[in-house]
């Protein structure tokens, strides 16, 4: 029989209306019931990403420029030779709360949760930040906070033209040779979910580029798991160590191997 806990309070001392305490069997049943809805949400998210990959593109004809650590660069340079580019507009500049010690608190929280960029780069995707602060201030902030993403200084109308002059947001671009196209834009609460390799890839025109995805014909796709690697190993090997592949494609065989190695 379900029971309610008593005497549980929050930090302010106010009583908390906590869920009932149940048996393991009842908990398993409740979890299975919720899992049905969670699977529906996952499938809906995948379907939305598939629709996103079919959004029309708009050509970017203006020759936008930025200041970077090595001097003046173009929007094309921000791709770093890759086909996809995600540009996050972070508010770090005079007039923003926290200046000059910090960037905006929300933008800083987002920067703190950015996954290792090697995984995005392995999928032909570059993530860059852009602000109005001078490069010297950006370099100081990155060093202080331990952030490693490329971070550029906007010097023209890029922020206004792409809807991020007054609020943060991610703009997504695709490069076809020398031509650049805007493919997607997300801001407001949509930015809260950003930070993982998957959340970034799901807003790009090519997606995760895995064989299970519903993508237009001809899009690059590889088997899932097989391209995954340690962040310091992508340049060394085209695929991860076979032991890792075993555990993702044949968990039982991987378990037998581990048991045998432990006994050896």
CATH first level of the largest domain: Alpha Beta
Helical fraction equals 25-40%
Strand content: 15-25%
Task: Please name the fourth-level CATH homologous superfamily of the largest domain.
Answer: Glutaredoxin
How many domains? 2
Provide the CATH architecture of the largest domain. 3-Layer(aba) Sandwich
What overall geometry do the principal axes of the alpha carbons give? globular
For the biggest β-sheet, the strand order reads: 3-10-9-6-7-8-4-5
CATH topology-level name of the largest domain: Glutaredoxin
Distance between the termini: 49 Å
Task: Find the structural class using helix and strand composition.
Answer: alpha+beta
Mean pLDDT: 92
Largest sheet report = 8 strands, mixed
* Total number of helices: 9
What oligomeric state is this? single chain
Can you give a write-up of this model?
The protein starts with a strand and ends with a helix. α8 (242-249) packs across α9. The longest helix is centred in the first third of the chain and has 29 residues, at 24-52. By secondary structure, it is of the alpha+beta class. The chain folds into two domains: 58-201, Glutaredoxin; 221-264, no CATH class. It has helices spanning 24-52, 75-78, 105-112, 117-121, 135-145, 158-161, 197-201, 242-249, 251-263; strands at 3-4, 20-21, 58-59, 65-68, 71-74, 84-89, 125-131, 151-154, 169-176, 179-187.
């Amino acid at each position: 029989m379900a029971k309610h806990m008593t005497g549980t309070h929050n930090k302010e001392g106010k009583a908390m209306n906590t869920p009932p305490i149940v048996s393991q069997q009842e908990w398993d049943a409740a979890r299975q019931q919720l899992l049905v809805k969670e699977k529906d949400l996952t499938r809906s998210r995948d379907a939305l990403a598939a629709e996103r990959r079919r959004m029309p593109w708009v050509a970017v004809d203006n020759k936008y420029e930025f200041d970077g650590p090595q001097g003046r660069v173009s929007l094309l340079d921000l791709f770093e030779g890759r086909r996809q580019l995600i540009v996050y507009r972070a508010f770090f500049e005079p007039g923003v709360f926290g200046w000059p010690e910090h960037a905006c608190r929300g933008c800083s929280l987002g920067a703190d949760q950015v996954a290792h960029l090697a995984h995005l780069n392995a999928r032909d995707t570059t993530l860059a930040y852009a602000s109005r602060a001078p490069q010297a201030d950006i370099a100081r902030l990155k060093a202080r906070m331990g952030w490693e993403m490329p971070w550029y200084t906007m010097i023209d109308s890029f922020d206004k033209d792409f809807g991020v002059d007054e609020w943060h947001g991610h703009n997504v671009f695709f490069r076809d040779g020398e031509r650049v196209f805007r493919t997607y834009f997300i801001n407001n609460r949509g930015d809260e979910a950003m930070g993982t390799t998957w959340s970034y890839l799901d807003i790009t025109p090519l997606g995760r580029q895995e064989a299970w995805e519903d993508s237009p014909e001809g899009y690059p796709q590889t088997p899932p798991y097989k391209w995954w690697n340690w962040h310091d190993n992508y340049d060394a090997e085209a695929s991860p160590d076979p032991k890792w592949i075993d555990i993702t494609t044949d968990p039982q065989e991987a378990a037998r191997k581990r048991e045998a190695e432990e006994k050896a």
